[in-house]
Amino acid sequence: MIKFFSGVFFRAAVFIVAGLVLTGCASFGKGVAEAVMEKTDAEDTRVCEIFGQQFDGLKAGLSKHRKQTKVLMVHGVGVHDPGYATEFLEKLAAQLDLTVRSKYHKDISLTSFVDQDKKLGNLRITRLLDRQRSRELLFYELTWSEITEGEKALLSFDNSGEYSFRRAEVNNMLKQFTNDTGPDPIIYLGNSRNDILTAFTQSFCWMIQGDWQSLPEEGRRACNIFDGEPAEQIAQDHYAFISHSLGSRITIDGMQRIAKILGNPEKYLYMDGKTKEISGRMIAELRKKHLPIFMLSNQLPMLQLGREIPETAGQEEKYCFASSPLYDKRMVSKTLIIAFSDPNDLLSYAIPQGFSEKYLDSRLCIEVTNININIAKVIDAFGLGKIANPLDAHIGYDTDDRVVALIAGGIGNAHTAPVVQERCKWIELIE
């Protein structure tokens, strides 16, 4: 649905500009329109600039002998159905040369461990392998929009015939789009936030629980972090996250929530002798991990507005270095944020210098790489100025070849894809 409205929005914008030009001069308008189309189909000159240090993509983890790579994807605003990431997953599999896939995916209806009547969305897991069955990726697709559907029903009257017929056709389509996507960030600031974060932490729990065979086929299930041998599983797996727009805020908040729980497990978890031992070994293994988060259409600066700052922000020196006094209290060894943003995406932002140090939990030991990338094509709008479709710029990240290649192969290493080497400019930032 979002892609449909993207096309409508762009055509409406072009028609408005065209109307100004074409008044009284149809033949001239035809020539200009043809010129615009020729420029659109010309050589792709879209910008791709990477500002940061070298980083690995998913190939690095897949190349490790006898280890699995597990990836969790978290969507952004709007109604999503399980399977929303299929096109992206297929492009990613091609980049990773994973040509074998599980015949069936597994769908877990998420719920809370303390309240199993709660409906917290869906977690779909797909298994990918190479031909030799030597490399394995488990792809976890979280669909949380079920949580906000009830509250957004408050605006359903506005999409009914009683009100919609009063609008111009294009305006009505755009209003429906706004009613679908606009409320989610507002709802996230309210009572539903805890349920959405519970859905994320449940998804993370399932990620660190066993392998493909041990995952349930389907049904409403709550994950118990103390089931199985999570420490051994964490030690042998590689983890990564992919998020879009509001999903990036959910991912960071979810990781901060997990850091808070693991930082004081006696307060937040039921602890007896056995669970205390399991928790200790699990936390010790997590602290060795490097966790990349690929943030598409990053919105962290905007979604930080009006929020409290974590108590442990601005304390990297205490947690993140071998000589730090609280080094054994960090959550992970490093969290690498790779933030993709199109300057023509009206809802996307780079992460400015000092942001992570001031506003994010220091126990995550965050390092930031900003990627400035044109997702939507920029064209000359009839000589009146350049224009790019802002909705394409917001939703097209997960199907852009350069974005997928960067997630798969990273930059500055042996796995970096040719399309990245040819079409992206890397500005390495050093201390």
Question: What is the fold's blueprint, element by element?
Answer:
Blueprint: H1 2-22, H2 26-40, E1 48-52, E2 55-56, H3 58-62, E3 68-74, H4 86-96, E4 100-101, E5 106-110, E6 122-129, E7 136-143, H5 146-152, H6 161-164, H7 169-181, H8 183-188, H9 192-207, E8 220-221, H10 230-236, E9 237-244, H11 246-263, H12 265-268, H13 273-286, E10 290-296, H14 300-303, H15 316-319, E11 334-341, H16 355-359, E12 366-373, E13 379-380, E14 386-387, H17 390-395, H18 401-409, E15 410-411, H19 418-423, E16 425-428
Percentage of residues assigned to helices = 40-55%
By oligomeric state, this entry counts as: single chain
**Helix count, DSSP H or I runs of 4 or more residues:** 19
Distance between the termini: 44 Å
Key features of this structure:
single chain, 19 helices, two-stranded antiparallel ribbon, alpha/beta, 19% strand, 431 residues
Put the structure in a nutshell:
This protein is α/β, with parallel strands linked by helices and 431 residues long. Helix content is 41%, strand content 19%.
